[in-house]
Amino acid sequence: MTLHIDIPEETFSSILAKAFRNTAFVTGFVITLLILAMAVVSYIWTPYDVTKLVIADKTQGPSPAHWFGTDHFGRDILSMIMVGARNSIAVALVAVGIGMSVGVPLGAFAAARGGLVDEALMRVNDLVFAFPALLSAIMITAIFGPGAVNAIIAIGIFNIPVFARVARAGALAIWPREFILAARAAGKSSTQISIEHVLPNIATLLLVQGTIQFALGILAEAGLSYLGLGAQPPMPSWGRMLFDAQTRMVVAPWMAIFPGMAIVITVLGLNLLGDGIADILDPKSRRQR
Amino acid sequence: MTAYLLKRLAISVVTLALASMVVFAVLEILPGDPARLMLGMNASADQVELLRNQMGLNAPLVWRYLHWAGGLLNLDLGRSYTYSVPVIDLVRERLAVSLPLALIALALSTIIAIPIGLFSASRRGRAGDTIAMGAAQLGVAVPNFWFALMLIYVFAVWLRLVPAGGFSGWGAGVWQALKSLLLPAVALALPQAAILARVTRSALIEVLNEDYIRTARAKGLPYRTVLWRHALRNAMIPVLTILGLQFAFLLAGTIIIENVFYLPGLGRLVFQAITQRDLIVVESVVMLLVAAVIAVNLIVDLSYAVVDPRLRSRQ
Fold this sequence. Notes:
The complex is a heterodimer. Chain A contains 11 helices and no strands. By secondary structure, chain A is mainly alpha-helical.
């Protein structure tokens, strides 16, 4: 006996083919890959040493020797952007990891249990959402001291309710489905069902939210380091570079232009990637186009 | 409907009460003794102890919380450690900068975003839509403080049309004051407008697929009327939700933007208070911002009923 499936089967290669026809996905994927590559390469090679101060070369405009110019200490802006990418990516990525690893189980649990547990968890969520995220991040970094690790914690905490909400909403839509009933009839516990049947079905949602939060994390990290609460000098960070650039806007505008463009391009790439994934894997969002 | 409103109101009050406990608890564990901070490092232990008693810092935790929370309700926010003035005066003075700033930004964002959303949704898939949504995609990716720096460079340094920062105060002339709030408001509004335009577009597209839109078109109503009168109104719920959320972003955004433009607003006040360990100011301003966010969310919930008559009749 063969099982009849009346939806077109999506094989890995058909999804891949669809992905390559999706402009948003391809653009986002290429940009993200380039930024990641830039961060990795910076471990082995940068055009100049970012820890070396060459006062003789200070605030030089873009030139063949320094493509993006130099800062007030004579450091090469391009090299600093490359090294700064590490910091931005690491902070945002770990913050997404924290949000997912705590938020998703909470959301899935709330959906599986329902009732009072669900209500209580959602009220806690409301509570966290009532605090403007940036304000709380500033408070957290002020309590524990500035630095990359505390920036990760501050941004990570605010990813938790986001993922809890997405996981709960996604799981609630899966629970009434027939295959869940079948799993129940087979005697599986609600934890087992959540892990084996619900999670794989909301993975797309989580992936899309993950890229959005990744992009937001990059922006938040830049904001915190701009205020002096993120990674500390001499470790270059994009936000800190913008802070240094602010008072020198008149004499050295390139000090502000290039690090800012690095942030814009990175965030744009991640957002396009997220939009692309949502488009490819979620038929509902495709119908809207 | 009344039951729904009461439930929403009750949830808001509980959230606010819980938030006040969180704020109080967090600031309790902040390192740094306010009394020591006020007296300086040369003060003797006895002097510090005396001041701690005077400031009520040695009272039991619960009593201090109740005292503080009761004060908040009476708008008695205590005295700032660093400025030595009542916090409420400080807040009132700073609010005169931040509130107009946030409102101008919100207005700008709405004025820019709604027409773009309408334009894009009605030209779905065509070149105009692609260009508008590409611009929105770019707008979402721009950090507002970097955009602010670029605005300063172009309009203040280069064209010299507006001041690069600072605030002359409302007393020195409304026009002058508005001029110094213009760039910050634009910087705050742009990323929000980009998000709002995207939400408006997708909400409209969903509505435009509905049967009643086809009916309205079929009975011969002009497309404009259908779009503005029938589609936009029905697409308002997601748009209002985002507008409410954006208010929280705008309030938080003022912290960075006010620092970029050296504006003496609430955001700059709270940032400086945190770095100076002026706890009483931090507590008050954070509570004020949280209360504002909760209130706006409640207003958004209520406005659903105004926009959608079906919600009004539902029990």
